[in-house]
Structure formats: structure tokens, C-alpha cells
Amino acid sequence: MAAFTRHACLGGVLTRWQPMLSSTTMLIIPSRGSKIKKPPQKPKKKPTIESVMASIEAKGFLRSYKPYQPNQNVSERLDRICEMENISTNDMTSIEDMDLRFKLFTKCNEEFKHCIPNSKLVEIRTIGDLRVFYQTPVITTTPYDALKNLDLPPNLHVQQDYVRFHPETDKLFNGKTAFPRSATFVTGLKYKTKYPEYIPEKPWPIHLKYDLHGNKID
């Protein structure tokens, strides 16, 4: 059968004998010059701006921002800065000039002690946008920490400063733990200075010394 197939390929009569080969051996060899059609693939969906923004928003609620609480005279102080820089205090005044933006934002940072982050620079295009930014408080309290200011039900208790075991500070069991040789790691940079780590010494591996004859050396 293999010789017959080879003879058909060399003789150029594969097209005539292909139905017979297909029905007998289920071996389909494409003719010379023909192309094998691949199954159509589904087009990949490109990420949209809305999906990217939703992904960034879902990454976390706490950023490395400093807390900021605006005063009641923020608007008057901002108008005073604009007058010093010869800028109109109208909220529709555009501040597109780069040198003007740098001088104005620097003065506002010195006055309010609140710097504009890079993610907000593109949103501030007018004096009104700048006014809204400095009138908006920045709250860095996590939802867990905010629970202590709420009126909780009597069957719910939130422990703000939890206790971590450390043999030097434990007074209840004189430094003895129920989980011997278990370390307590502090992975967060914020809490490394608040909660000390405890890494116990491991008694293994025990390195023993032997001589060339296999005798233990004390």
C-alpha cells in the first residue's frame, strides 16, 4: 500500500486516486501547491480605557498620600496667590502655560502644604479645577480603622492594636509559645516599626565533624 501511494504521488495522479485512498486508508495528502486552511481564530479583544481605569481603581483604596484637611479660607488664599502671579481669579481662567503652571503650583504647595500628585496634574486645567483640588480633603484612613469611630453593635468588637507574640514581651506564659520554632514575620513596611519580628533559632542542621576514618571529632 505504501508503494502504491508513492507511485501515485510521483506519477501526478494523486488527484484521481485521492477519493479511493481517503475511503480506504483515511490518509489525505494535499496535492502539490495547495494550501491547508487553518480554522478561523477569534479576534482578541483589545483593552478599552474604561477597563484599564476599572483595573487601576480595583488595585487598592489606600495610596501613599499624606492626609489633608482644607481650611475654610482656602478660596481667599488661592485668590491672593493668583493676584501675586498676575492671574485672573475667575474659575474659567485657563492655566495651560507650563511656566505659569510651575510657578502657581509651587506657590500653592508652599501655602497649603499639600502637593499636587502626578496623577492629578492632567486634570487641573483652570483656576476652578485648582480650587476644587485644594477644597477636597484627603482621607488616608482605612475602612478597618474607621470602624472605631462608628457606633458598633454590642456583639461586634474590633481590636485595633492586636497582640503579636514575642518572648521578650510576653508575661502570661513567661515567653513560652504554643507554636515552638514558628516565626512571626511582619511583611508590611508600615507595621515593621510598630510590631517587632520574632525568628527563633533552629536547632538543625547539626554539623558534626568526622575524621578520615569516620570517627566523630568532639
UniProtKB/TrEMBL annotation:
Q: What is its main location?
A: mitochondrion
Superkingdom to which the source organism belongs:
Eukaryota
One GO cellular component term: mitochondrial large ribosomal subunit
List UniProt keywords, sorted A-Z: Mitochondrion, Ribonucleoprotein, Ribosomal protein
Classification via Pfam families: Ribosomal_L50 (PF10501)
Q: Where in the cell is it found?
A: Mitochondrion
> What InterPro entries has UniProt attached to this entry?
Ribosomal_m50
**Which family does the record assign?**
Belongs to the mitochondrion-specific ribosomal protein mL50 family.
Identify this protein by name.
Large ribosomal subunit protein mL50
What does the record give as the organism's lineage?
Eukaryota, Metazoa, Ecdysozoa, Arthropoda, Hexapoda
Q: Which gene is the coding source of this polypeptide chain?
A: LOC105364071
